[in-house]
C-alpha cells in the first residue's frame, strides 16, 4: 500500500476529502475494524491459526472462517464510488419491495422482475447455470428436471443472496430447519435473508410454528418448498451435517439438491452480524457471478420412479477429480448427519441413505467435501471469534 501511495500521492488526499464530507455511512465504513481490507491490508487473516480446532479433522476444511477480501489497490477510489452510488439505491429498492410491493396483488412474474432489479443493482448480472443430464440449449425439452410446484429444493446455505436468487427464479416458500427436530418452520423471504446474518440455532423459538414438509406441500400446492438442511451459513467450502427435516417429505416427492457458489466468494456470510462487511463486498465491486448447479431429483425410496426409460449415468459436467470423490466427500454417514437427532427419533438405514444422497449431490455440485462440523461447532466458533475480535479492539 505504501508503494501505491508513493505512486499516487493524491489517494490520501482524496480519501480524506471524502471523509470530510461527513457522510454518515462513510464515517461508519472507516470506523470499522474491517476497513483495512479496503486499503489493501490482510492483517485480519493473521491469527486465524488459533481457530484450527474448527477445521474438519478429515479434510482440514474450515467452513466458518470468512473469506478474505481482495485488496482494492489503486482501484480504491472507483470501489468507493460504486459503493456510494449503489448502497442508497439498493436500500431504496429493497425497502420498496419488502414494505410495499410484495403486499400488492401482483403476479409471480412482476415480483420476480422486482427481485431481479434488487440483484442487478449491486452487479449480480452473470449466472452460470448447469443442470445434471441437460445439455446446453435443451432446457425447454427437460423442464421436468427443474424444481416446480410440488417439489422440494434442498439448497446450500452460504449467503443472503441464496434466498434472493431462489425467490427470483422459482418463487418458492422458504423454511428453516433445526438439528433437534424433523419439523420445519415456515418463514418469509425477508426472514430467510435475515437468517444469513443471525447466529446459528440448535432449537427453534418456543412460539415458532413447526410443521412437516408434507403439510407444507399441501398448504402451498402451487409453489416449491425450499429447505436449508445445513441449518446455518458457511463460507461455501464444505457441506455441513444435515438436519433430519428432509425426512418428512412424502415418498416419491422430488427433492432437488441445488448448489450456489459466488465469484468473488467473499459475499458469503459465515460470521453473524457481518452486514457491514457483506455490504461493502457486494456493492464495491463491478460485477458478481453466481454458479448454480441443480442435481437430478432424489427420492425417499430406494428405487426412484423412472422418468424417461432406463437410468443412465449422465451429467452436464466433465469428468474430473471432484466428480469422482464418492469416498472422500463423506467418510462416515452416521457422523455427517446431524448428531442431535435423538429427540427427533433415530434414523433407520433408508433415511440415512436418503440424506447421504442429497448431501453427496450438494458436495459434488459445489465441488467441495462434506465436513463433520455442524451448528454446535459453529456456535462455539462464533463465541471464540467474537472474543478474539473484542480483544483486538
UniProtKB/TrEMBL annotation:
Q: Which GO terms describe its biological process?
A: lipid metabolic process
Q: Name one GO molecular function term.
A: acyltransferase activity
For this UniProt entry, which segments traverse the membrane? 7-26, 78-101
Q: Does the keyword Ribosomal protein apply?
A: no
Which UniProt keyword terms apply here?
Answer: Acyltransferase, Lipid metabolism, Membrane, Transferase, Transmembrane, Transmembrane helix
Q: Which protein is depicted?
A: Phospholipid/glycerol acyltransferase domain-containing protein
Biological source species: Endocarpon pusillum
